[in-house]
Amino acid sequence: MKIFDCFLFCGEIDILRARLELYKNIVYKFVIVEGSVDFRGNPKKAILDNDFLSKHSNIRYFRLNSEDFKVDNAWQREFTSRNCFKKGLSDALDNDLIIISDVDEIISPTKLVKEAKGIRVYEMSYHRFTPNYQCITANWKHACSFPAKYLKNYSPQEMRLVYRGIRLGEIKVTDSFKLIRQAGAHLSYFPISKEISIYQTIKDKIPKHPEDHVLTKHRSFKVTPKYFYCLTFLGIDILGARLLWGISCHPFIHFSKDERLILDKHLKNNKMRALISCKSSYNILSFATSIEKITWRLVTILVAIYGSSLRILIKLFYN
């Protein structure tokens, strides 16, 4: 059985290097798609050049140009990019394993189910900006793996949506899946360069997302640096989502020791500060799991009240 690791790449070079090293002994081919335009259609420079690619013979790289996108729509550009994975899977057999994710969704190699029997969705700790800043009230569940035979009937994008069960047109993946708990980490909004601040990273990245990627009144991120750092310290979601954030003293403890060494080597970001501090990613993952079925709605209401109240106070002093 061969393993194909398929993901979108948008400039997160340190995360990419960590991923390549983590998976080098288990993945047959990395199928990477990068666009010459962002999801809004704005031109952007390619990060992966021939010099980088020549050092990694196990990468199948596809770069999409503006004319590859038939519809002028941000979501459709993302879906088209993800469906391009099939170009790199021509030699995949029915029982080969396909991983569909984004580059910043890292499945622990020891947690990856290395068998072509059904669909797996991987629960991940949810981090922003730096490894130690973690969402306390929700985990991430989007990366998946499955036998290649599923791509005879469904597109990569449709397989990506298997956990949420979203219908695209008339097609929806109806097969059941198994959720693999505490299986990785989602590393969102990490600076792509040590010369760029976290605040500037967010300012640069938000305009590249679909306008409705978060359905809140704060999604445009029109705040000052002081306002931003007050939000993050207090654990208020910067885009207005009903999520609470805090510090994890051991953010990768749910990875194996060898995997942690690789992640720490490539992700030497400055640490965030926050009012809420937790012992480890295990504690946060377990807490988020414990509230997701029974008390999650109550928790999100309380988080929304907390965030809205403090935003008013912060705005008086810093915006």
From TrEMBL:
One of its GO terms (biological process) is N-acetylglucosamine metabolic process. InterPro entries: Glyco_trans_17. GO terms for cellular component: membrane. It comes from the Bacteria. One of its GO terms (molecular function) is beta-1,4-mannosylglycoprotein 4-beta-N-acetylglucosaminyltransferase activity. It holds the Pfam family Glyco_transf_17. PANTHER family: BETA-1,4-MANNOSYL-GLYCOPROTEIN 4-BETA-N-ACETYLGLUCOSAMINYLTRANSFERASE, BETA-1,4-MANNOSYL-GLYCOPROTEIN BETA-1,4-N-ACETYLGLUCOSAMINYL-TRANSFERASE. This is Beta-1,4-N-acetylglucosaminyltransferase-like protein.
